[in-house]
Amino acid sequence: MILDLIFARKEILYHYSPFSFFPKPDKEKIFQHSIVNEIEKYLVDETVQTLQIDVLGEQHFFIVKFLKWDSDYFNLPTYKLLYVLYAHKDYKILKSATKIFVQDFFKKKGKYCFSEIPSEDIFTIQALNESGFKLVENRLTYYLDLKKYSYERYDVRSAVLEDIPNLKRVAREMRNDYDRFHAETVFDLSKADEFLATYIEESVKGFSDFTMVPSTTGVPSDAFLTANYLFNDWDAIGEKVSKMVLSSVSSETCKGWYLKLISEMAYHLKSIGAEYAFMHPATTNRAVIHTYEKLGCKYGKCIHILTFTS
Questions:
Q1: CA-to-CA distance for 264 and 259, rounded, in angstroms?
Q2: Given pLDDT bands bounded at 50, 70 and 90, which one contains residue 135?
Q3: Do 137 and 178 touch, CB atoms closer than 8 A?
């Protein structure tokens, strides 16, 4: 039943894959691995709810995952709406089903839910908007072909535990007012700052595969960039790709180091066998996007982050 709904909107759901940006992708492998297989895993995950809502004979499945770490940190039950599955093209029916979902799922006060939806799924975006979800962030995917990457080299190293106080301070101070945690009105700004500080601490301790900092004499470790190798996805999607995740650079002590870290991380990922790297800048971060384009990165896709708080 659910499998039928997945394939009914295959062309749209494909864009939910984090790997949908490749210029010449093996779409079948990517769709099977990062959409079909992932949804099948969610269906047997105890932290995931699958809510079925039927309207005028049309089935809809809202797949929602409970995020324990986020819930504990913000002291707010936090969920992620992963997918809305349906097989029709009637917007009024979709909107009706979405309104029922919102009424039922958020009946209990004090729930927070967000969803990351690609631009291509415009009907779902509109239905969620009309049902009370609000837009808090627009995010892009840029990608870099590492096979032919060449740029000036810089001195960098892997972050160590002794760097953590510096990195946490920079993460707090270099606030991005347009990311979800700071643009979302339900979060206290200082709590959001501390969330990112905690994230970089855990990244150095092993949450990320690699955390890079400057290693030039006289330059403090007031800048960082993390990456995940994604080895487990390579064979499944037919591409050797890694992800640059979180970065922050002190504008006072490490000016100019954002470009340097991105470039050196490209070389690092290339050295471990990756052929592509991708990253997720906010649409508002023009300086970052300019840096990516200067290094040869290309636009891949756009997603919209919507939230609902009961």
A1: 9
A2: very high
A3: yes
Sign of the CA dihedral with 220 first, then 141, 83, and 33 last: negative
| Cα distance between residue 42 and residue 65, in whole Å | 8
Strands of the 58-66 sheet, one edge to the other: 48-55, 58-66, 78-85, 112-118, 298-309, 134-145, 276-279, 241-249, 223-228, 210-214, 156-158
Q: How many residues does the chain have?
A: 310
pLDDT band, residue 188 (cuts 50/70/90)? confident
How far apart are the C-alpha atoms of 129 and 122, rounded to whole Å?
A: 10
Residue 223, H or E segment? strand 223-228
Instruction: Quick: pLDDT tens for 157-167.
Output: 999 999 999 99
Place of tokens 């770490």: 69
Closest CA to 86 of 168, 2, 163: 2
Task: Tell me what pLDDT residue 206 has.
Answer: 94
**DSSP state string for 276-290:** EEEE--BTT-HHHHH
Given a contact cutoff of 8 angstroms between Cβ atoms, the answer to whether 289 and 140 are in contact is yes
Dump the DSSP string for 142-202.
EEEE-TT-------EEE--GGGHHHHHHHHHHS--TTSHHHH-TTS-HHHHHHHHHHHHHH
Give me the DSSP letters along 97-129: HHHHHHHHHT-SSS-EEEEEEETT-HHHHHHHH
Structure-token match 């300019």, residue found: 290
